[in-house]
Amino acid sequence: MSRFLNLAALTVVAGLAGPAMAEPTGLGRPATPDEVAAWDIDVRPDGVGLPEGSGSVADGEPIFSERCASCHGDFGEAVDRWPVLAGGRDTLTSARPVKTIGSYWPYLSTVWDYVHRAMPFGDAQSLTADETYSVTAYLLYLNDMVDEDFELSRDNFSEVVMPNAGGFYPDDRMETAVWKNRTPCMTDCKSEVKITARAQVVDVTPDDPTSKRSAAAPAADEAAPAKEETTEVAAAPAVDPALVKDGEKVFKKCKACHAVGDKAKHKIGPHLNGIFGRTAGAAEGFKKYSKDMKQAGDDGLVWDEETLATFLAKPRSMIKRTKMAFAGLKKEDDLTAVIAYLKAMAK
Amino acid sequence: MTDKTPSPTSRRTFLKGGLAAGGALAAAPALAAGDPAILELQPWANQLGEGVDVKPYGTPSPYEAHVRRRNVPWLTADPVSSINFTPLHELDGVITPNGLCFERHHSGVAEVDPAKYRLMINGLVERELVFTMQDLKRFPRENRAYFLECAANSGMEWRGAQLNGCQFTHGMIHNVIYTGIPLKTILEEAGLKTNAKWIMPEGADAAAMTRSVPIEKALDDCLVAFAMNGEALRPEQGYPVRLVVPGWEGNMWVKWLRRIEVGDMPWHHREETSKYTDLMANGKARRFTWEMDAKSVITNPSPQAPILHGKGKTIITGVAWSGRGSIKEVHVTTDGGRNWRQARIDGPSWDKSMHRFYYEFDWDGSPLLLQSRAVDSTGYVQPTKNELRAVRGENSIYHNNGIQTWHVTANGEAENVEVS
Questions:
Q1: Tell me: the pLDDT tens digits for B172-219?
Q2: Residue B405 is inside which H or E element, if any?
Q3: Residue B222 and residue A289: Cα distance in Å, rounded?
Q4: Does B197 touch chain A (CB under 8 A)?
Q5: Strand boundaries in B65-217, DSSP class E
Q6: Among B397, B415, B340, CA closest to B374
Q7: pTM
Q8: Residues forming a β-bridge with B248
Q9: Which residue has the higher pLDDT, A213 or B318?
Q10: Average pLDDT, rounded, for chain B
C-alpha cells in the first residue's frame, strides 16, 4: 500500500518536471560575444541598441534617391502600391487614412530599426549605421519634422518626438466588447432582412475560372495542370546548367524589381524577356525609364553580354541617373552566372 | 486472422460472377441501359497505372488541380511581399494539408540550409546560448493542433462585401498539428533573469521579422516547432523552425526563427506599430491586439462552391475557431439571422484549433441568406459586421471577425453580401 502511494507521488513529481525543466540540460553551447553582436541588431524606443554614428538630411537625400526612391518615390509618396512614407497628417479619422512615418509611426527607433534590418527591399542589412542615420534624417525631413540642415546621431536621437506618439492605447477589446456573455437570440430575432451590400457590384474578385466549381465536371485534360514547356537549358550546347543555376541565385538580388521567363511582366523595372539584342530603354510598354537610359538607347546602346556585364558591374558609372537602385555585382563570377541565367530564361 | 482472408470458395464465386457480367455486356452492348460510368469499361479498370517508383512524394489527383492557394494581385505591390489564401471551400475536416496552408511573406520564402540553422537566445538570460537543429531535437517535444490566422483575415471586408469567395474573405487561416519544443523549456535552459518581461523572436529571412511577446505567453503555450502534420515545416511556413503562438495573430508566429531576445520592455518594432495596430474611428489606435476573436464561416455553399444538386437533402458546412479557447456552439441561419439553429460540431474540439460544423437540412429551392455564428468556451458570441463597425469604425484593417453572409439564389449560386 505505502509503496503504491510512493509511486503515485513520484509520478506526479515526474509529470511536473517533464515540460518544465528547471535545471539546464546542457544542450546547446554558449553564444560568443561576436555572435551576439552580429545578430543583435534591434533598436528600442529608449535608444538601446543604437550604434555610434550620425547622418544628415543632405547625406540622406542621395542615398534615398538611389536605394529607396524606385519604390517609395522621390518624396516618399510611393510608386504603385509600395508604402507611402511621408505626408498623411490629419488623415487618421478620414475615410482613407494615409498611415506614414509622420502621420502614424509612434517611435523614431522603429524607422531606424526597420530600415537597417529589412531595407532596401531585396538588399537587406546593406546600409551602414551612418547611412541608416542619414536615411532616417531624410525621412524626418520629408515629413516636415526637421530642417534641411538637420543631422541625426545617437546623441540627439531620443530628442525627436513623433507627431503620433500619443496615438496608441493597449488592447481593450475585452472591456468594451458588447457581445461577451450575452445570450444569443435564436428565434424571431428581427422582422425583416434586406441585402445592403453585394460583392458582385464591387467586382474586385480575381478572375479565375478554375476557382469556382461548376455543374459540368472539368474534363481530365482541363483539370490536369498544363504541362509547361520547360526551358531547354540542357539542349543548348553553349549553356552550362550549373552556371545557370548559380545565376538563378544571383538573380534573387534583381527579383524585387525584374521578372524574366514565362509570363514575366513589368514590375518596378522592365521584364527581361528578349533583353539580348534589345535597345536600352526600349522595352515595350515600360514607361518608367530614366531620361539617361532612354538617351543611351537613342545613342545606340543595345544589350548584349558585354554591355550588360558593364552595366551590371556598376550601373551608375554606365548610365548616370538610371532609376535602377542597385549598386552593382562586385564578383566576376556572379556577373557571368546571372548573364548565363538571363540567356537561358530571357528567350 | 481467418475472417480477413477470403475463403477460396468465396473468391471463386466472386470471379465467376464478374466474368458472367462481363460476358453479358460484351454480348449485348446495345441493350444495356443505365449509367455509362458503370456500363462502359473505364480506362482505369482496364489499363495499368503508375508503379510505386513513379511518385516518391505523392501529389493529389489531377482532377483536384483546381484546389490551390490563390492570391489577389491588386492587394499588394509585389508577390514577394504578399499573401495568398487557403481554399477553405475545397476542404473538409479540421486539418489543412501542408501544401494548401496560406502564405504570407515580407521578403519571399527564405531557403534556409538546416545544416547552417542556428537558434540564438540572448538578452536577459543567465546563459546566452546557440542551438543547432540537432540540439533542438534532443529536447522533449509535444504535438498540438493550432489554427494560425492572419490578423488581416477578412480585412478587405470592413467597408462592405468585397471579395466573392470564402477563400478570399476567410482564407488567411490554416490549422495543422505542430511538433515542437515548449518555448518555456528553451528559455529555462538559458535561465531567465528576474527582470525578464518580454521576448522578441526574430526571423532569419531578408525581412528579419520581429515582434514583442509578453513573457507570460512565452512561458504558457508557445512552441518552437519544426514539423507540421508530421513532416518538416514547409519552406513557406518557416523551415526549418518557426515559433507557434497559439490563438494569437499569425504575424507573431515568426518563421525561419533565428533568435529570441529576452528584454524588460517591448521593442515597438514596425510590425507592432505601423502594422498590426487597429485604427479606430477617432484616429487613435489599439495596439498589442494579440488574441484572435471567435469567428466562423460557412465554406459550403459559398461563391466558389455553389449548390449543384438542386433542392432536397443539403449539407451546409463550415469552420469555427477562437483564440481564447474551444468552440462550444455554432449557430446557422438560412434566413439572414431571423431564426437560428444549432449546427453539429464534428471532429476534435481542441483549444485554439479549428472546429468543423455541419447543418443538414432539406432545401426547398428558395433563396437563402446563410450565416454562421460561433460561441466560444469563454462565452464570447461572434458579432455581426455592423456591431463591429459600431465599435471600431471601418479603418481597423485587422481583427474583422464579423458574421459572414452568403446569398444563395434558387439556382444554387452564392454571393458575398451584407444584410440589414
A1: 999 999 999 999 999 999 999 999 999 999 999 999 999 999 999 999
A2: strand B405-408
A3: 49
A4: no
A5: 70-71, 84-85, 119-123, 129-131, 142-149, 173-182, 198-203, 213-214
A6: B340
A7: 0.82
A8: B291
A9: B318
A10: 93
Q: Which of A82, A139, A179, A186 best probes binding to B when mutated, by most B CB atoms within 10 angstroms?
A: A179
- Chain pair A-B, CB pairs under 8 angstroms: 302
More confidently predicted of B26 and B70: B70
The amino acid sitting at B402 is G
- Contact with chain A for residue B137, Cβ under 8 A: no
Q: Give the closest-approach CA distance of A216 to chain B in angstroms.
A: 9
Q: Which of residues 148-187 of A touch B (CB under 8 A)?
A: 167-173, 176-182, 184-187
Interface contact B289-A124, CB threshold 8 A:
no
Please answer yes or no on whether A171 and B290 come within 8 Å at the CB atom: yes
Nearest to B130 among A29, A95, A189 (CB): A29
How far is it, in rounded angstroms, from Cα A14 to Cα B149? 35
- pLDDT higher than threshold 80 for residue A11: no
Is the pLDDT at A223 greater than 60? The verdict is no
User: Count of CB atoms within 10 A of residue A105's CB?
Assistant: 25
> How many whole angstroms separate alpha carbon A160 and alpha carbon A138?
13
Of residues A11 and B75, more confidently modeled? B75
The radius of gyration of chain B's CA atoms, rounded to the nearest angstrom, is 25
For residue B262, CA distances in Å to B178, B204, B214, B221 come to: 24, 17, 10, 17
Whether residue B133 lies within 8 A of chain A, CB to CB, comes out as no
**CA separation for the pair B73, A152 (Å, rounded):** 38
Flag if B339 and A197 touch (Cβ within 8 Å).
no
Average confidence (pLDDT) over B360-366? 98
B285 with A213: Cβ contact below 8 A: no
Percent of chain B whose predicted confidence (pLDDT) is above 90 = 90
B contacts of A269 (beta carbons < 8 Å): none
Name the one residue in this structure whose C-alpha cell is 554591355: A307
Kindly tell me if the per-residue pLDDT of A197 is higher than 80: yes
Quickly state the pLDDT bin for A333 (edges 50, 70, 90). confident
> Which chain B residues contact residue A188 at CB under 8 A?
338-339
User: Beta B327-333 vs A29-30: how paired, if at all?
Assistant: unpaired
Q: CA A253, CA A250: separation in Å to the nearest integer?
A: 6
A140 vs A152: CA distance, rounded Å: 10
| CB-based contact B381 A179, cutoff 8 Å | yes
Top-confidence residue, B269 or A245: B269
Number of Cβ atoms within 10 Å of the Cβ of B364: 11
Rounded Cα distance, A110 and A266, in Å: 32
Residue ranges of A 66-85 with Cβ closer than 8 A to chain B: 71, 80-82
Strand pairing class (B312-321; B327-333): unpaired
Average pLDDT over residues A9-20: 41
pLDDT band for position A22 (cuts 50, 70, 90): low
**Chain B partners within 8 Å of A107 (Cβ):** 268, 273
* Amino acid identity at B348: P
